[in-house]
From TrEMBL:
Keywords, alphabetical: Membrane, Plasmid, Transmembrane, Transmembrane helix
Sequence intervals crossing the membrane: 12-34
UniProt cross-references to Pfam families, sorted A to Z: CHAT
Protein name from the UniProt record: CHAT domain-containing protein
Domain of life per record: Bacteria
Stretches assigned to the CHAT domain: 686-971
Length: 973
């Protein structure tokens, strides 16, 4: 299979996300051909089905064909076309075998009469009927013969021939898409569009363009599909059925490219109105109800369910707490409501399978989010099993085709997921049921020649055997699981489908972990390498292929691999393991894997690619630095904390502390809370010392021996919201010994120290927060910001451009920003950093562009426009002196890194919590005075400023609350 299948199978990743509904909508989208002059036109995304409702609203199929009959063949039209007409009636009733019998008789009669034109037309209908039954060895020859006859025929008018040819090309594309040949389908629909154009049939051209968009979606080319449909949406045709087809398809692609709801508007300059998936699909649903088209109503409902599910997943991921808030859960409820409506209102087994599978998948993915699970009576588990029975009943009504096949695989996979979610039902046999379904799916995939489906089925069958092995402790089941997974992997390699292959590499690694760790490492490494290629190549082509930590357990794969790499035999010394040297290549790989995970988080947060600061860049800088610099990479696993240390020009070493993950996170969270309270010296020192013992103490002798002056931390997520400067060794804070910086993914290519003379600074302040700010955020007046900016202005060697208060608007700031290059941009204003881009913002004065004063992360492009396009003129340092991180959000520092990336800054200094602005003013004043001194790095200048407060004679700012909040990320030189 060629590369196009790779693109097509990207959609199958949705099996682990939105369930089969979206996948079916993409894999077998509307393979029904509609005559060019039908009174109503179905979208070609409708699933091929033989239940009558699928065809309601499609117009009079027979009369429309009769109107196209060429006059010179009238002698064959009366009795033979009666057969064609009766066959279509049978087809509409789902009586496919009877339709095939009649159409075959008609085709034979046309052949005997020498009427090649209508023989070709009837053969195309035969191909479509065989397609519905999954009889490909008859469907494909029928459409091939139809097209060949049309090449040879000169009967009828040119318009007649062109219309019949265009419909045959349309049906050919349908067959190709249903057999996994999306690239060929796209070509067929391009030809159909040209043929309709020659026939003067603009409606046919539009239908072909819609079909082309579905091929593009199946190929993974979502932006191209969205652009195509967007152009059609801007110029909707007068025919309402065509409008409906465009609306429903465009609503889908808007979801796929990430424009979900009103706060994520797509409004390029070329478009006349803003568009998002919810709005467009709701418009489509209203039109479908007006046209009384049950098929389109249920399709719109499923699509809206998918979009609301995507919104729920997005908002849940951005919540700081593990349990989503009621307003977030409302999106989940909305998705379930739409799925349930579709299931109740359709008679089509295909549509019912779509909606039921989506319900089942959503329930499985969010069991723990919605309500507590009772060990004796798990309501949602029972509901999932009930849905499984309904799906199985619908599957029995479908012929062998890709819809039925992938539905079976989805159902098997969902049952496997159910078997893994505690608490399990008593005497649960779900893994056995899954295995039975998947065994059938393997055979059916072989029959259809669908190697991708076969790979999925084999791989999940291997997973089923692995889960049965866990229940029965049977080694032979493990061996069977290994064999099946290997077969699945080989198939994925054959069809060049890395999106499938990484799963089986990972599964092989997990299966081998206990008995063959070296082979497990090789397989984990293959999974990791494959994921990295996908991340760098595809992550930002669309939102569905970004690595969601809920839906696609990529984070789990990365962490498992790093965990395995750090499992050498270590001699225990009570709780704390002794520092040892390990295989340097394995330590390096573990460090690399966790760094890649960090970059994945940042890129997901930004929803855009960004220049990556690799560990090799960091190591090169530390090796060449005049100030000895060490790099620490702490990682939290389920049962321990691992720390990998690199000293300049030396081998890596690591050590570990045995500690439950929950205990470590609780200590970190308490330390973070204590740091923000003024009378917590003892608690701060107690927890600060605990964390110091985990991270620093085992390497203390090596640090002293290497005369280390600066420590760069590559932190696992839970550690990022606490200042390493405040760790305590029993006598001193870490900042008293070392300058500290955090690597959060900012570009470190060609790093340079700040100039110590003629330093140009753009400084803006807002003392009074705008009154229009919403009740969710309450910000006090910043009394000392004017003094802060005045102090910067008075610093020797600094040239300052100031913007204050009401003049600090987005547009005026951007104007000043572009007047001349600045090494430092200093913003003394309230703001917040969060793992939710919508809650990452700074405050400016209210203006026409920013009505509430909140410049959100997405608007940073507007603030810093022009400069980010010229990396040679990049900001060296962005200082955000009055901001804070969102409470309880352990990924909030992504907001700091995101702000720096959006601003085009090489480094940033920002505060982790809101602090007394008088202490902030004093610290900033000392920082600027220090940074202008010869050969003082950013990290050392910040350290000196923090020490000045810590060691002040008046003792007013001794508590870390006042000096530890400031965090330096990125270039520390």
């Amino acid at each position: 299979m060629q590369l196009p299948l790779l693109r097509q199978m990207k959609r199958l990743l949705r099996f682990l996300g939105l369930g089969i509904g979206t996948t079916l909508l993409i894999l077998v989208l509307s393979l029904i051909s509609i005559p060019s002059n039908a009174k109503q036109i179905l979208s070609h995304r409708h699933p091929p089905d033989f239940i009558p409702p699928i065809f309601k609203g499609s117009g009079d199929l027979v009369s429309s064909l009769q109107s196209n009959l060429p006059a010179q063949t009238s002698q064959s039209t009366s009795p033979t076309l009666d057969l064609v007409q009766q066959g279509k009636i049978n087809y509409q009733k789902g009586q496919l075998e009877q339709a095939i019998t009649l159409w075959q008789r008609a085709a034979d009669t046309f052949a005997a009469q020498g009427d090649r034109l209508h023989q070709a037309m009837t053969l195309s209908y035969l191909a479509q009927a065989y397609q519905q039954l999954g009889i490909w060895d008859k469907a494909n020859p029928a459409i091939a013969q139809s097209l060949e006859l049309l090449k040879q025929s000169n009967q009828g008018t040119t318009s007649d021939r062109l219309h019949i040819l265009a419909e045959a090309q349309t049906i050919q594309g349908s067959l190709q898409l249903d057999q996994g040949q999306a690239s060929d389908a796209f070509t067929s629909w391009q030809l159909a569009a040209k043929t309709f154009q020659l026939a003067g049939d603009q409606a046919g051209v539009l239908r072909s363009q819609i079909n082309q968009s579905q091929a593009l979606v199946t190929l993974g080319l979502y932006k191209r599909a969205n652009n195509l449909l967007g152009s059609l949406y801007e110029k909707l045709p007068p025919e309402e059925p065509l409008q409906l087809a465009i609306l429903l398809n465009y609503g889908e692609t808007l979801r796929l490219v990430g424009y979900l709801q009103a706060d994520q508007l797509l409004k390029p300059q070329t478009l006349q109105r803003s568009q998002n998936s919810v709005a467009v699909l709701e418009e489509g649903l209203k039109l479908a109800q007006k046209l009384q088209s049950p098929v389109d109503i249920t399709k719109a409902q499923i699509s809206l369910g998918n979009t609301y599910r995507a919104i729920y997943q997005q908002q849940k991921r951005l919540q700081p707490n593990p349990c989503p808030q009621p307003e977030v859960l409302a999106y989940r409820s909305k998705a379930l409501q739409y799925y349930q409506q579709a299931a109740q209102e359709t008679d089509s087994p295909t549509t019912k399978i779509q909606s039921l599978s989506n319900q089942q998948s959503l329930l499985l993915a969010t069991q723990s989010d919605y309500e507590p699970i009772n060990a004796d009576n798990t309501q949602q588990t029972q509901e999932v099993l009930a849905i499984a029975s309904q799906i199985q009943g619908q599957l029995d009504r479908l012929p062998l085709n890709r819809i039925a096949l992938y539905a079976k695989i989805q159902l098997g996979y969902n049952l496997l997921r159910l078997d893994q979610i505690p608490p399990k039902l008593k005497d649960s046999k779900t893994s056995n049921q899954a295995a039975q379904l998947l065994e059938v799916a393997v055979k059916q995939a072989q029959t259809l020649g669908d190697q991708a489906a076969q790979s999925y089925a084999l791989g999940y069958l291997g997973q089923a055997y692995a889960q049965q092995q866990q229940n029965n402790n049977a080694l032979n089941l493990t061996n069977q699981a290994l064999g099946l997974t290997t077969q699945a992997l080989n198939l994925a390699k054959t069809i060049n489908a890395p999106e499938i292959a990484y799963r089986w590499f990972w599964q092989l690694g997990r299966l081998d972990r206990a008995n063959n760790p070296e082979r497990a490492i090789k397989n984990y490494n293959e999974a990791y390498n494959t994921l990295e290629l996908l991340r760098k190549d595809l992550a930002f082509d669309n939102t569905d292929l970004q690595f969601s930590f809920e839906e696609h357990p990529v984070e789990q794969a990365y962490r498992e691999f790093a965990d395995l790499l750090l499992q050498p035999q270590i001699v225990a010394a009570k709780e704390l393991k002794q520092t040892i040297e390990a295989d340097d290549s394995k330590l390096q790989k573990a460090r690399e894997v966790m760094r890649s995970l960090q970059m994945t988080e940042l890129q997901n947060f930004l929803q855009q690619p960004c220049a990556e600061a690799s560990l090799q860049q960091i190591d090169k800088i530390t090796d060449e630095s005049d100030s000895p610099t060490a790099t620490f990479s702490p990682i939290i696993f389920g049962d321990r904390i691992e720390v990998i240390v690199r000293l300049p020009n030396q081998k890596l070493f690591h050590y570990q502390t045995d500690l439950p993950e929950a205990t470590a996170k609780a200590t970190i969270a308490q330390f973070q809370r204590d740091l923000q309270e003024p009378y917590t010296f003892d608690a701060v020192k107690e927890n600060g010392q605990k964390i110091y013992k985990w991270l620093i103490e085992p390497a203390q002798k090596q640090l002293e021996s290497a005369q280390i002056k600066t420590i760069i931390f590559v932190l696992d997520a839970p550690f990022r919201n606490i200042p390493m400067a405040a760790l305590y060794d029993g006598e001193h804070y870490l900042i008293e010994k070392y300058a500290v910086s955090v690597a959060l993914g900012l570009d470190l290519s060609n790093p340079q120290p700040l100039p110590n003379a003629d330093l140009k600074v753009l400084a803006a302040s807002l003392a009074n927060p705008p009154q229009q700010i919403d009740d969710k955020f309450k910000f006090a007046k910043l009394i000392h910001v004017d003094e802060e900016l005045n102090a910067i202005q008075k610093t020797a060697g600094v040239t300052t451009t100031l913007i204050r208060d009401n003049k600090f608007t987005l547009d005026l700031f951007n104007q000043k920003f572009n007047d001349s290059p600045f090494q430092i941009v200093h913003l003394a204003t309230h703001g917040q950093f969060s793992s939710n881009p919508q809650d990452t913002f700074i405050l400016t004065a209210v203006s026409d562009l920013v009505s509430d004063g909140k410049v959100r992360l997405k608007d940073f492009d507007a603030m810093f426009r022009t400069r980010v396009l010229n990396r040679a003129d990049a900001i060296e340092l962005l200082i955000l002196s009055a901001c804070e991180t969102a409470s309880g959000d352990d990924r909030a520092t992504l907001g700091i890194a995101g702000a720096a990336v959006k601003a085009g800054a090489r480094s940033a200094i920002a505060s982790l919590w809101s602090l007394d602005d008088e202490s902030s003013q004093k610290l900033i004043e000392i920082f600027y005075k220090t940074i202008t001194q010869s050969q003082t790095s950013r990290a050392e200048a910040l350290r000196q400023a923090q020490l000045a407060l810590l060691q002040a004679k008046d003792g007013l700012y001794t508590h870390p609350l006042y000096w530890a909040a400031f965090l330096l990320v990125g270039n520390w030189l």
